[in-house]
């Protein structure tokens, strides 16, 4: 298989953007963060967009942007945590590139997200216990989508080198 683009999927706080930026230099490809792309395109933060137009509108707009980036080549894409779980987005990604699920435990995600609560509308204002419970429930709901990724990577143990190895073993980079 020739890999034209790589989609990093996983829950909020799973490190998709951090990994994506490191893969950019390792692979010599471009990197795009779907959330940043959204904010640039709509000239507002995702938090503002949720407040003004609601989540359903956000999901539709997010889908359009995903279709848009699915045409670009030699690109690593960090998707929003919910992107794989709506419409046929997971199918679109699987049809057009290598999808990698960065799988992390609820504990790790809760630890990471507690410091980044304010910018993420879905977890804003939650206490530590509420956050933990929210992640647990949401992960259960979303796991079925994330697990459709071609590669399920253990984010607790894999370093960048490990990801690079898995990518190169999955196909030929364009
Ligand atoms: C969301 C995750 C966010 C962003 C939006 C909704 C989600 O992206 O797209 O706040 O539904 O999990 P990150 O996973 O990059 O935080």
What is the H/E string? EEHEHHHEHEHHEHE
Poorly predicted regions are: none
What class, by secondary structure content? alpha/beta
Main β-sheet description:
5 strands, parallel
Report mean pLDDT, rounded to a whole number: 96
Q: Give Rg in angstroms.
A: 15 Å
Tally the helices: 8
Bound molecules: shikimate-3-phosphate
- Main-sheet strand order equals 3-4-2-5-6
* Residues in helix, %: 40-55%
Number of strand segments: 7
> Which shape, going by the Cα principal axes?
globular
Instruction: Provide the β-strand percentage band.
Output: 15-25%
What distance separates the N and C termini? 10 Å
GO molecular function, one term: shikimate kinase activity
Keywords: Amino-acid biosynthesis, Aromatic amino acid biosynthesis, ATP-binding, Cytoplasm, Kinase, Magnesium, Metal-binding, Nucleotide-binding, Transferase
Protein name: Shikimate kinase
Binding site for ATP: 13-18, 120
